[in-house]
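Protein modeling request. Please complete all fields; requests missing the sequence field cannot be processed.
Requester role: graduate student
Desired output: 3D structure, token encoding
Chains: 1
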Amino acid sequence: MICVPIVEKNYESVLEAAKNSIEAGADLIELRIDAMDHPNPDEVSNIIKDIKHPIIATNRMIEEGGLFRGSEAERTDILLAAAKHADIVDIELQTDEDYLNRIIKASKSTIISYHNFEKTPSAEILLMVVNQERKLGDIAKFAVMPKNISDTLIVLDVLSQVENTIGISMGEIGRYTRVVAPLFGSPITFASLDNISAPGQLDIRTTKDFLDKL
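Delivered output (214 residues):
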């Protein structure tokens, strides 16, 4: 499935971007709550209900490339409200255990995620991360930054050994993994409409063209 992240600041622009993404063929919408100006639980719940399309709710922490500036309690309270309406909630593995367990319990389905914008850990370390994630949630996710083409092959190697795992090699070097990863079992790939949410993200039209030919 192709998921388009919505990285917009207010209610109206989120709905407009979601509408355009759905028309472009997005199977899923990722609502990047952390990109919104002063999001609150009620507003986020109403946005999810108004979009009327399968949604991944994400309120990404700063430590993993997110933009949310409030406290951890505020961040997870918004996600708890979103969990009542979203199809999937993405929550970081490094989230405090109490908050993490509350989100998992409240969600219909979860992606437990790990992002490293500095490097690509070894396959052994990434497999440990994925195994932890899979014990906690429904889908595991890791997105890492490559230094060279060999790092991108680590991502594909890990994907070849696990199931139900999203694996991404970010940046220009890793761009190809976004369309190759589905061949290794990755259930979701992320593509942009107008605003990219991660380095190396392809646009949805290019992504669809590639995947249609696989």
